Amino acid sequence: MHVRRLDPILVDRIAAGEVVERPAAAVKELVENAVDAGATSIEIAVEAGGRRLIRIVDDGRGMTPEDLELAVERHATSKLPDGDLFSINTLGFRGEALPSIGAVARLSIVTRTAEAETGSSIVVEAGVKGPVRPAPAPKGTRVEVTDLFAATPARLKFLKSDRSEAQAVAEIVKRLAIAHPTIRFTLSGEHITAFTYPPEERGEHGFLRRLSRVLGAEFHENAMSIGVEREGVRLTGFASLPTYHRGTGTSIHFVVNGRPVRDKLLLGAVRGAYADVMASDRHPVLAIMIDLDPRAVDVNVHPAKTEVRFRDPAFVRGFVVGALKEAITRYAFRASSTGGTRTLESLRPQGAMPLRPAYPHRTHAIRPTSAFANWQSPLDAQERSYASGLAERQGSLSDLAAPSADSRASLHDAEPETDEAPLGAARAQLHGTYIVAQTLDGIVIVDQHAAHERLVYERLKRERAASGIGRQLLLIPEVVDLDPVDADRVLAEASALESLGLVVEPFGHGALLVREVPSALASGRIKALVQDVADALAEWGQGASNPLEERLDAVLSRMSCHGSIRAGRRMRPEEMNALLREMEATPLSGQCNHGRPTYVELKLTDIERLFGRR
């Protein structure tokens, strides 16, 4: 069989397979064209998930009849005036989108410039271009794509349901709306909750308002501001507190020179920055803009232009990790507002409940519901309605079960200055696990184990960074039996573990002899400590590519659990207040080593609303 040149229409259809893999990809290309045209308002409408209709209307610069005729030709573009692929300042630059879409659908374009008296239109159907005709049109461009993939019916089999495709379109529009907050975006259509994002002012405040509209109103109160610049690279944006997170990484947004990207390097940087304060199966919510010299980043490395390649990837990754870690440390004492909000929601009455049991011959204890069962779930920011008062009921208080709280802290009056502290003065300990403290304008509930675990962890890290972790020699060395593979893994890292205060030696097949342990963990269970260390080493992998410091921190995180106050231990008032004061002085005390909140705060005004006082 001889080599032959393919038909131009077939070439366009092959190219369309790379550029237009689904309706959302077509929407992305067309909206990017509108952004490049200087539009201040972009309206998107879809039908049947974009398969039947995609309509994009913008108020940009528009095109002349001559430009319109060339725009649907392959590799024709106005965005590379000097032909320099290494200095790209626009979202589009290849000139492939319009001819690729026209090759697999019916493409109709109506456009007019501000100087023209009338507009121009053109139709491309299944790769066949029609003539340019005059048409009435406002300033800007209107693009309609109908019967997508009608020219390649086999592609339709690979599309998902209309609802799924519509949701993919909405996700693309949201990412572009985050990248360009000064532009109005409107989306409507079937299987979509229509929305409009009004244009925001330039600057940090406008960007945060746009993020609150896209990511949820509660993001505003749980966001950390980021604004740093070094060696010509500028990072600006907002990232969530470690205790405010989601189950997937879809709420992680990076914008490189105005282009939304999903880059593995940047996603890895986020994971590294939050590794010390968030569980591995949780993901932060953030939107960060990276602005740098266009020559320092190659955007022509992916057919859909969703990935980029930095000239100095190690510097960019380190810069992102450092900026996020600095913000986490700066906002370290704050816990997310959603903890207190969810607690209040669980306390609001769902209906009138009689104080006397429904069956007089039986006595029931009123048991508390779990307020923290679904603390990971994102909250609905809209305040729900609730009853303005409680119905008065007759009943004997003797029908209620006796409280199980230890209220010894309230027997001692707190010092006035203690009440003014951020975490207030300890008033009680509940169920041997939770400390209740009173502040000037509310109450704070602290998980004593989670809080002390973070305090021990930070103390061990400080000791390691200063003069080394203090060690305590065991009077009688303890023998710990492990799986032979785990024992070999621990022995292979013996020198690194010694720097963490844990000294081990081989003691036969699958056995270790523990001679010294960190002073802060001397009262803990040594066997469980060594087993956790082995698990941490297995998780990170021997000889892993992660920096040594990150691997050591992972081991310390496991070790700190064994030196912390356990749930169920009764604490004296002075011990509870000492824990609160240490939390106030310790970075990152708002969350434990696994990313769970260490405390929730309830404002007095919210508590008063629960009882109809406000």
UniProtKB/TrEMBL annotation:
Protein's UniProt keywords contain Ribonucleoprotein: no
Region Disordered: start-end pairs: 398-419
Gene3D superfamilies to which the protein is assigned, alphabetical: 3.30.230.10, Histidine kinase-like ATPase, C-terminal domain, MutL, C-terminal domain, dimerisation subdomain, MutL, C-terminal domain, regulatory subdomain
Pfam family, one: DNA_mis_repair
GO cellular component: mismatch repair complex
SMART domains: DNA_mis_repair, MutL_C
Keywords from the UniProt entry: DNA damage, DNA repair
Function: This protein is involved in the repair of mismatches in DNA. It is required for dam-dependent methyl-directed DNA mismatch repair. May act as a 'molecular matchmaker', a protein that promotes the formation of a stable complex between two or more DNA-binding proteins in an ATP-dependent manner without itself being part of a final effector complex.
Protein name: DNA mismatch repair protein MutL
UniProt organism field: Microvirga ossetica
Gene encoding the protein: mutL
